[in-house]
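Researcher: Go.
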Amino acid sequence: MTKKLAVLAALLLVPGVLSVAGPAAAQDAQAAARPHGFSTIGLPGWQVLTTASVKDGGEKVSTPGYATQGWLPVKPDDAGAPGTEINALVQNGKCPNVFYSDNMRKCFGYVDKVGPVVTKPFSDPWWYRTDFTPDIRLGQHAKLTIPGIVGEGDVWVNGTLVATKDIVSGAFAGHTFDVSKLVKPGKNTLAIKVYPNNPLKMYTLDQVDWSQIPPDNDTGIQFPPTLQVSDALTGDNAHVVQDNAPDLSSSKLTVKVDVANDAATAQTGDVAATVTPPSGAPIVVTRRVTIPANTRQTVTFAPVKIAKPQVWWPYSMGGQPLYTLTTAVSQNGVLSTSSKSTFGIRTVTSRLVGKSAPLPEGARQFTINGRDFVFRGGGFAPDLFLRYDRADTAHQIALIKNLGLSGVRLEGHDMPQDFYDQADRAGLLVIGGFLCCDAWQPDTAEQLGARDLRIIHDSSVSIAQRERNHPSVFNYGWSDNEPFPNQEKAVLTAFKQEDFQVPVIASAEYKSTPTLGNSGEKEGPYDWVPPSYWYDSSHFDATDDSRTNAGGAWGFASEQSAGHTVPTLDSIKRFLSPAEQAKLWQDPAYNQYHANFEPDHGGYAFGTLYTLDQSILQRYGQWTSLESYVDLAQIANYENTRSQFEAFLHHSTDKDNPSTGVVYWQLNKGWPTLLWSLYNDDGDQPGAYFGAKKANKPLHALYGYDDGKVTLDNLGATTQSGLSVQARVLDTAGKVLDDQTAGGISLGSQGVKTGVLKPKVPAETKAPAPAQVYFVELQLKQGGKVVDRNVYWLSTQKDVVDWAKTLGNPQATLSQYSNLQALRNLPKSQVSAVASTKPGRGGDLVTTVTVTNTAKNPGAAFFLRADVRRGTPDGREAPGDNQLANATWDDNDITLWPGQSQTLTVTYQAADLCGAVPVISVDGFNTGRLVVPGNEGTGGFSE
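Model: Structure:
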């Protein structure tokens, strides 16, 4: 390596150089640290329009200076992409408040099934056009990368057709084209004629039945085109292959870089790679290579051995140190191209454990750095119009970590690089995989022709390249069906070729291939089931090898939930019209637009809240208003999400039939929703959120619905000692029926201890005998301090599942519902609250709220919900929509008995107050509404 190149490599990879260099040198080094010659096309903006309004063809549209008056100007999102056709219209004011009520239907039409685009103006191709001015000299080479099209596209540059839709097809299939003869100094133009997305025929993406289907089928550009300018030699595809010792005491890192020679003669150059640890000295490796004319070769460096590497962990198990890989390709000391990326050193393995009658091949167990854990996550959905927002991603990651979840599952919606970068830094795990129910899931192997297999292969190459460096991505797999052999070969060949070093899973159902073996996973249910359902470990349909909709806590559940989520009243009023709000509590069979497009109930129709509503009616009694309906739904959703996650922890120690992981279906939606979510599009956190959060607390006590015993779990990174747990049983009047304590307990990281206590509860009854409602209160203490409070409301009349009618269906049929209606007659209670606010980090405010039950009667103040709101100077709520939906609470929806207090902490952006002062509202199921200032004081306003 030349001296000049060595200095350049150091500048590229040693942050300390930047901190001590003079202004000019620092500026040069910062420029070098960016990928040299690499640029994102379209950052200044795009012009977008349907071809029905453009008479000219690509040879004119792609000419610099082409007149675009009347076109839709589109700003790229935070990924640098212009997005979908509907996004272009919305950016230009075509449908204000597009997600309110059924505005999207009124503006753009309605689609009731996945398939081709049938609605004008989206059934015609659309032009996406942008100008770019590259930093290029005569004689240099230029390569254009189109990283995928949601649909298909003809690509034009400066009046010349570069590629047709026969090649440029697929949402993730990236293609690079040599445009050296077309691109020139000065203004250039890229134009892409985007053909309508048909997810049944194209390897793209869709919304399945998760929401309403955008009438444009998300046709557009999700990832931005890029341009690489270079001299004769171009480097790309740089990555690190890890070979870690089993105990991670050392790691061998092999750096690979693809080097292409675009010249007509052989070229010699220098390739340098530097691995910079999170702390410590960088390691530089170099090679001089000669590449034949017009060829591409992979340059593989000798392995670099690192002793005692800094190991990346999920956030609940340890830290997230990231190494930096920087590469440089030069000739005669002149830099041609460079790259910079990060990676984490970690080892992911998986195996099948616990062979049983339900799972004859065993359950899928994932291991990070040699440590088994119960994965707890949710199915992640991007914005409905595929608009990427860095800040929104950061906020959602904060919500997910606040939930205590391990990570997310991405089904068929691979994300922009920033998403994975943020997940890496946050220690959030990501399950990747292909989509179900469309072209990615063919009916026969024979329908996959040579073009199909090429697109599948090319898509898999791009997916591997995008995700392999990210330690957060820990497995990838298929959805409902296992792949056919030719389909599997296309994917696995690409993954191996690109060194994608994660376990690959054959299916999200209990299916297998000879190559990959059994998946060890299962799916369903998707609609309401009782909380006790999750604790079942014996019922399954022996004739259904896929084990679908046998959702008890055994095995690895790749997607399941009890269906619909009712947001808080604040959130409901933001997106449902008054008429829809009335239908929500008055007409359970109404097809809510913000559920999905399936108008019925029962089976795989989820467009109404009928099944959930019937369960609330039977278990809690009739509601009389929107407010009372929402109150009951919060309680019902809370107990169900808590039970689902707790059951999988409770059963994780069953060696004969263990539960190894659960993915809540779904975590979120890309628009306001009533279906499958733990938090809403506006950041709102309803009862479902706080039930799941309670179950996933780092140090937690839970009550098993199946055996009536108390289990403790430690989901943190270190051993926890000095633990004790108190279990009290109380009736609705506040009388203590049982009080037990167990102490002297220690739990290792990810440890679960069952059978700690068995509270004495009232005897079971069956209708028509009167039912008794009672509470079980668990208080987990460490060193005498309460670290976890968990309150259950239960009935002597249990939910009884009719398994013969339930198995095989995505919802439960019951022969008897639990009777919790005595909760409606709880004695009135009273609480006080004291709040204090101080500055947090980065413009945050942190408010602590101590809530105390001050009632004179012995009963509970049940299901107390706190919200931070915009207030008036005298401590009242400001008029209008005043809830800070994006605030994150450490706990909520709590229950207190007289004399008990609990301090809640909430973090929020000061800017969200919009100049108002914070006030805290506290509402309970059997208390009035209390509003207190967000600062010191015991005053407040009661309703």
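Model: The two ends are 77 Å apart (CA to CA).
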